[in-house]
Amino acid sequence: MIVLRSILFNIAFYINLIVRMIVFSPYYFLAERKAAWSVPKNWALANHWLQEKIVGTTFEIEGLENIPEGGYIFAPKHQSFWDAYALLPWLNDPVYILKRELQWIPLFGQYIFKMRMVPVNRGAKGKVMAEVLKRTKREIESGRQLIIYPEGTRRPAGAPPNYKYGIARLYRDLKVPVVPVVMHPGLFWPRRKFLRYPGHFKVQILTPIEAGMDPDAFMKKLVDVMETASDKLLVETIKANPQVPLREDARRRFAELEALASNKVSG
Protein backbone atom coordinates (compact mmCIF):
# COMPACT_ATOMS: atom_id res chain seq x y z
CA MET A 1 0.00 0.00 0.00
CA ILE A 2 2.85 2.41 0.83
CA VAL A 3 4.43 1.74 -2.57
CA LEU A 4 1.14 2.42 -4.37
CA ARG A 5 0.45 5.58 -2.38
CA SER A 6 4.00 6.78 -3.00
CA ILE A 7 3.64 6.27 -6.75
CA LEU A 8 0.30 8.08 -6.79
CA PHE A 9 1.66 10.97 -4.74
CA ASN A 10 4.75 11.39 -6.92
CA ILE A 11 2.59 11.46 -10.04
CA ALA A 12 0.19 13.96 -8.46
CA PHE A 13 3.10 16.08 -7.20
CA TYR A 14 4.60 16.57 -10.65
CA ILE A 15 1.26 17.03 -12.35
CA ASN A 16 0.46 19.70 -9.78
CA LEU A 17 3.79 21.39 -10.54
CA ILE A 18 3.53 21.27 -14.34
CA VAL A 19 -0.13 22.28 -14.56
CA ARG A 20 0.29 25.20 -12.19
CA MET A 21 3.36 26.47 -13.99
CA ILE A 22 1.45 26.44 -17.26
CA VAL A 23 -1.94 27.70 -16.06
CA PHE A 24 -0.72 30.38 -13.69
CA SER A 25 2.30 31.61 -15.65
CA PRO A 26 0.41 34.51 -17.31
CA TYR A 27 -0.70 35.82 -13.92
CA TYR A 28 2.70 35.12 -12.34
CA PHE A 29 4.67 37.10 -14.90
CA LEU A 30 2.19 39.96 -15.22
CA ALA A 31 1.55 40.45 -11.49
CA GLU A 32 3.63 42.60 -9.18
CA ARG A 33 6.45 40.51 -7.75
CA LYS A 34 5.13 40.17 -4.19
CA ALA A 35 1.63 39.37 -5.42
CA ALA A 36 3.10 36.70 -7.69
CA TRP A 37 4.34 34.84 -4.60
CA SER A 38 0.77 33.52 -4.26
CA VAL A 39 1.49 31.04 -7.10
CA PRO A 40 4.39 29.10 -5.49
CA LYS A 41 2.89 29.47 -2.01
CA ASN A 42 -0.43 27.97 -3.11
CA TRP A 43 1.50 25.25 -4.95
CA ALA A 44 3.19 24.37 -1.64
CA LEU A 45 -0.16 24.29 0.19
CA ALA A 46 -1.59 22.05 -2.53
CA ASN A 47 1.35 19.67 -2.08
CA HIS A 48 0.64 19.50 1.65
CA TRP A 49 -2.98 18.60 0.88
CA LEU A 50 -1.93 15.92 -1.62
CA GLN A 51 0.55 14.42 0.81
CA GLU A 52 -2.06 14.26 3.56
CA LYS A 53 -4.83 12.80 1.39
CA ILE A 54 -2.76 10.34 -0.65
CA VAL A 55 0.06 9.33 1.72
CA GLY A 56 -1.37 10.24 5.12
CA THR A 57 1.49 12.54 6.18
CA THR A 58 0.62 15.60 8.26
CA PHE A 59 2.64 18.19 10.12
CA GLU A 60 2.25 21.10 12.51
CA ILE A 61 4.36 24.20 13.07
CA GLU A 62 5.37 25.37 16.52
CA GLY A 63 6.94 28.77 17.18
CA LEU A 64 5.43 30.95 14.46
CA GLU A 65 5.47 33.73 17.04
CA ASN A 66 9.30 33.60 16.89
CA ILE A 67 9.35 34.88 13.31
CA PRO A 68 10.46 38.54 13.43
CA GLU A 69 9.35 41.37 11.21
CA GLY A 70 11.48 42.55 8.29
CA GLY A 71 14.73 41.01 7.11
CA TYR A 72 16.37 38.00 8.74
CA ILE A 73 18.14 34.74 7.94
CA PHE A 74 15.88 31.68 8.06
CA ALA A 75 18.05 28.66 8.92
CA PRO A 76 16.23 25.30 8.73
CA LYS A 77 17.47 21.75 8.94
CA HIS A 78 17.58 20.28 5.43
CA GLN A 79 16.71 16.59 5.06
CA SER A 80 14.36 16.32 2.13
CA PHE A 81 13.02 18.05 -0.94
CA TRP A 82 9.97 18.71 1.26
CA ASP A 83 11.69 21.41 3.29
CA ALA A 84 12.88 23.19 0.12
CA TYR A 85 9.35 24.49 -0.45
CA ALA A 86 7.14 23.50 2.49
CA LEU A 87 7.47 26.61 4.65
CA LEU A 88 7.13 29.19 1.86
CA PRO A 89 3.48 29.99 2.79
CA TRP A 90 4.61 31.18 6.23
CA LEU A 91 7.37 33.50 4.98
CA ASN A 92 6.58 36.95 3.71
CA ASP A 93 9.08 37.48 0.87
CA PRO A 94 11.86 34.87 0.92
CA VAL A 95 15.02 34.87 -1.16
CA TYR A 96 17.54 32.12 -1.91
CA ILE A 97 21.18 32.23 -2.91
CA LEU A 98 21.22 29.50 -5.56
CA LYS A 99 23.51 28.12 -8.23
CA ARG A 100 23.28 30.12 -11.43
CA GLU A 101 22.65 27.02 -13.58
CA LEU A 102 19.08 26.88 -12.25
CA GLN A 103 18.36 30.06 -14.19
CA TRP A 104 19.02 28.18 -17.42
CA ILE A 105 16.11 25.73 -16.91
CA PRO A 106 13.26 26.69 -19.27
CA LEU A 107 10.38 28.44 -17.52
CA PHE A 108 11.67 27.57 -14.03
CA GLY A 109 14.61 29.89 -14.65
CA GLN A 110 12.20 32.70 -15.51
CA TYR A 111 10.23 31.95 -12.35
CA ILE A 112 13.25 32.43 -10.09
CA PHE A 113 14.45 35.47 -12.06
CA LYS A 114 11.06 37.09 -11.40
CA MET A 115 11.56 36.61 -7.65
CA ARG A 116 15.00 38.26 -7.71
CA MET A 117 16.81 35.24 -6.36
CA VAL A 118 20.57 35.66 -6.02
CA PRO A 119 22.49 33.43 -8.47
CA VAL A 120 26.05 32.40 -7.72
CA ASN A 121 28.80 30.50 -9.48
CA ARG A 122 29.80 28.07 -6.73
CA GLY A 123 33.39 28.10 -7.91
CA ALA A 124 33.63 31.89 -7.89
CA LYS A 125 35.68 33.93 -5.47
CA GLY A 126 36.74 37.51 -4.83
CA LYS A 127 34.80 40.18 -6.69
CA VAL A 128 32.04 37.81 -7.75
CA MET A 129 31.31 36.75 -4.18
CA ALA A 130 31.49 40.36 -3.03
CA GLU A 131 28.80 41.20 -5.59
CA VAL A 132 26.66 38.27 -4.38
CA LEU A 133 26.92 39.58 -0.81
CA LYS A 134 26.11 43.12 -1.94
CA ARG A 135 23.02 41.96 -3.78
CA THR A 136 21.91 39.74 -0.88
CA LYS A 137 22.31 42.62 1.55
CA ARG A 138 20.19 44.82 -0.69
CA GLU A 139 17.40 42.22 -0.68
CA ILE A 140 17.60 41.79 3.10
CA GLU A 141 17.47 45.55 3.66
CA SER A 142 14.26 45.65 1.63
CA GLY A 143 12.68 43.38 4.25
CA ARG A 144 13.19 39.96 2.69
CA GLN A 145 14.07 36.67 4.42
CA LEU A 146 17.20 34.83 3.29
CA ILE A 147 16.75 31.04 3.42
CA ILE A 148 20.05 29.33 4.20
CA TYR A 149 20.54 25.68 5.15
CA PRO A 150 23.33 25.75 7.77
CA GLU A 151 24.58 22.29 6.77
CA GLY A 152 24.64 23.22 3.10
CA THR A 153 23.04 20.12 1.65
CA ARG A 154 20.48 17.51 2.61
CA ARG A 155 21.42 15.36 5.60
CA PRO A 156 19.50 12.23 6.67
CA ALA A 157 17.55 12.40 9.93
CA GLY A 158 19.91 11.54 12.78
CA ALA A 159 23.10 12.02 10.75
CA PRO A 160 26.05 13.62 12.56
CA PRO A 161 25.88 17.42 12.20
CA ASN A 162 27.98 19.05 9.50
CA TYR A 163 27.45 22.82 9.77
CA LYS A 164 29.18 25.12 7.28
CA TYR A 165 30.83 28.34 8.45
CA GLY A 166 29.31 30.29 5.56
CA ILE A 167 26.23 31.11 7.62
CA ALA A 168 28.43 32.76 10.26
CA ARG A 169 29.99 34.99 7.59
CA LEU A 170 26.55 35.96 6.30
CA TYR A 171 25.37 36.63 9.86
CA ARG A 172 28.38 38.91 10.41
CA ASP A 173 28.06 40.79 7.13
CA LEU A 174 24.27 41.08 6.88
CA LYS A 175 23.82 42.10 10.54
CA VAL A 176 20.37 40.55 10.93
CA PRO A 177 18.87 37.93 13.29
CA VAL A 178 19.04 34.23 12.45
CA VAL A 179 15.94 32.08 12.98
CA PRO A 180 16.89 28.40 13.56
CA VAL A 181 14.36 25.75 12.48
CA VAL A 182 14.43 22.04 13.30
CA MET A 183 12.28 19.26 11.85
CA HIS A 184 12.53 15.67 10.61
CA PRO A 185 10.64 15.41 7.31
CA GLY A 186 13.39 13.09 6.13
CA LEU A 187 11.78 10.29 8.14
CA PHE A 188 8.67 10.56 5.94
CA TRP A 189 10.19 11.80 2.66
CA PRO A 190 13.72 10.32 2.57
CA ARG A 191 16.23 11.90 0.25
CA ARG A 192 16.87 10.05 -3.02
CA LYS A 193 13.96 7.69 -2.35
CA PHE A 194 10.56 7.61 -4.03
CA LEU A 195 8.77 6.12 -0.99
CA ARG A 196 6.63 8.45 1.15
CA TYR A 197 5.54 7.34 4.61
CA PRO A 198 2.41 8.26 6.58
CA GLY A 199 2.62 9.85 9.99
CA HIS A 200 2.78 13.18 11.79
CA PHE A 201 5.74 15.42 12.57
CA LYS A 202 6.49 18.86 13.96
CA VAL A 203 8.37 21.83 12.59
CA GLN A 204 9.85 23.89 15.42
CA ILE A 205 10.80 27.53 14.77
CA LEU A 206 13.21 28.41 17.55
CA THR A 207 13.95 31.72 19.24
CA PRO A 208 15.94 34.02 16.92
CA ILE A 209 19.63 34.59 17.56
CA GLU A 210 19.95 38.35 17.54
CA ALA A 211 22.47 40.18 15.38
CA GLY A 212 25.78 41.41 16.73
CA MET A 213 27.48 38.35 18.19
CA ASP A 214 31.05 37.39 17.38
CA PRO A 215 30.82 35.00 14.38
CA ASP A 216 32.58 32.15 16.22
CA ALA A 217 30.34 32.55 19.27
CA PHE A 218 27.31 32.72 17.01
CA MET A 219 28.31 29.54 15.22
CA LYS A 220 28.75 27.64 18.47
CA LYS A 221 25.38 28.86 19.76
CA LEU A 222 23.62 28.00 16.50
CA VAL A 223 24.95 24.43 16.50
CA ASP A 224 24.22 23.92 20.21
CA VAL A 225 20.68 25.30 19.98
CA MET A 226 19.76 23.45 16.80
CA GLU A 227 21.28 20.09 17.70
CA THR A 228 19.78 20.07 21.21
CA ALA A 229 16.32 20.84 19.84
CA SER A 230 16.79 18.47 16.89
CA ASP A 231 17.79 15.53 19.10
CA LYS A 232 14.81 16.06 21.40
CA LEU A 233 12.45 16.32 18.43
CA LEU A 234 13.95 13.22 16.77
CA VAL A 235 13.15 11.08 19.81
CA GLU A 236 9.65 12.55 20.05
CA THR A 237 8.96 12.02 16.34
CA ILE A 238 10.19 8.43 16.26
CA LYS A 239 8.20 7.49 19.35
CA ALA A 240 5.07 9.08 17.92
CA ASN A 241 5.52 7.24 14.58
CA PRO A 242 6.62 3.66 15.33
CA GLN A 243 5.36 2.58 11.90
CA VAL A 244 8.02 4.58 10.04
CA PRO A 245 11.08 2.50 9.03
CA LEU A 246 14.31 4.05 10.26
CA ARG A 247 17.46 4.38 8.23
CA GLU A 248 20.76 3.62 9.93
CA ASP A 249 21.57 7.21 10.96
CA ALA A 250 18.21 7.72 12.66
CA ARG A 251 18.26 4.30 14.32
CA ARG A 252 21.77 4.85 15.68
CA ARG A 253 21.11 8.35 16.98
CA PHE A 254 17.80 7.34 18.56
CA ALA A 255 19.55 4.49 20.41
CA GLU A 256 22.30 6.86 21.61
CA LEU A 257 19.79 9.41 22.90
CA GLU A 258 17.68 6.76 24.64
CA ALA A 259 20.81 5.38 26.32
CA LEU A 260 21.78 8.86 27.51
CA ALA A 261 18.30 9.44 28.91
CA SER A 262 18.36 6.05 30.66
CA ASN A 263 21.76 6.79 32.21
CA LYS A 264 20.51 10.13 33.55
CA VAL A 265 17.52 8.46 35.18
CA SER A 266 19.55 5.64 36.73
CA GLY A 267 22.25 8.08 37.84
Would you kindly provide a written description of the structure presented here, covering whatever features stand out?
The protein has 267 residues and is an alpha/beta fold. It folds into 3 domains: 1-55; 58-87 and 143-267, no CATH class; 94-132, no CATH class. It has 10 helices and 7 strands. The chain has a 7-stranded mixed beta sheet with strand order 1-7-6-2-5-3-4. Helix 9 packs across helix 10.
List the helices and strands and how they pair.
Elements: H1 2-23, H2 25-30, H3 33-36, H4 38-55, E1 57-62, E2 72-76, H5 82-85, E3 94-99, H6 108-114, E4 118-120, H7 127-141, E5 145-147, H8 166-174, E6 178-183, E7 199-205, H9 215-240, H10 248-266
Parallel strand pairs: 1-7, 2-5, 2-6, 3-4, 3-5
Antiparallel strand pairs: 6-7
Helix pairs in contact: 1-4, 8-9, 9-10
